[in-house]
Amino acid sequence: MTDTTAVRVDTPGSPDTARLLAEAARAVDAPDLVLAVSRNGVRTVHTGGSGEPGPVPRELLGHELGSASKPFAGLLLARLVAQGRVRYADRAADLLAPGFPVHPAVRRITLRHLLTHTSGLPGLPADFYPQAVPRWSTDPYGGYPADRVVRAFLRARPRHRPGTRWHYSNFAVSVLGHTLAAATGTPWEVLLHQQVLAPLGLDATRLRPGPEGADAVGHRRDGTPVPALDTGGFTAAGGVRATPLDLLTFLEAHLGGPDPRDPTLSAALADVSRPLLRRGRRHAHTHTLTWFHHPSPYGPVLFHAGATLGQQAFLGFRPDTGLAVAATATRRVHRADTFVATAYGLLTETPP
After folding, report:
1. For a FRET experiment, which of 12, 80, 220, 348 has its CA 20 to 30 Å from that of 130?
2. Going by C-beta distance under 8 Å and a sequence separation of 6 or more, which residues neighbour residue 135?
3. How many distinct helices (H) and strands (E) make up the chain?
4. pTM score, two decimals?
5. What is the rounded distance in angstroms from the CA atom of residue 67 to the CA atom of residue 61?
């Protein structure tokens, strides 16, 4: 069943955007799908999917973001740096466990290394897999709590010297979350709310499942529902839940100008959007502190995708034209999946 909803369609271009979203939605097979676009603050939202819509509109349901949570962690770190509470060059082990004996390579890992996937840490701790594999499709993370993540970091033996190679790591970003909580004496959930969610007015964004009926339900490839994800000790890397409308608000903040009322937040938003490093063959891939950074015919695009056991999310914005795209789907990613490519196409191919 398909349902198209246009939100704040109040400029001549918005009906065209609605048609564009409806056409794009036909390429994605999922029980629930939301494609949301903001053009200079004017929003158009398409909702649809093969499942029956529930009593709560799809764009108002909380969706699991998976790795698309990382831009929230990045903005939090950037704001703490702007406030002078930590520095990018601070060594994580010194903040997390002062005086604890660690491998020399671990001692050199900084907050910047953790966030930018250049710490030398693997994607997940080695001892994560024995407990996760038996429940890989139901609850792989819930049995690995925060204290195990910290212990795994403190006894790690990185394969590469920090700062020399890029390797995507949920482990590293999770360690960043625990380190910032230790450095500020504030639990991660409270810290994220104080520094990012509340200042941006993201009232429907949280780190835990909401009341019954408030969250989207994920599905396996065959359409079987899956339970809400428990991220265990990996919350900073993948635990955010948000409505598509809140995601647009988050992206629009990255497209706004400096706010004299909150200079540290403005500085943080600018910092996470600035190209920082290159990787890959001929250094063709550019990254900011927390976003993938690609060229497009209409200027650079910044984006991040994520997936959980039964849901997917995509966030992206185009600074030069004021375009933002937020997309969610309630089906587990699979080899022939078109969701990310469709959302990425909306971001890179939509004319100004």
Report:
1. 220
2. 143
3. 14, 11
4. 0.95
5. 18
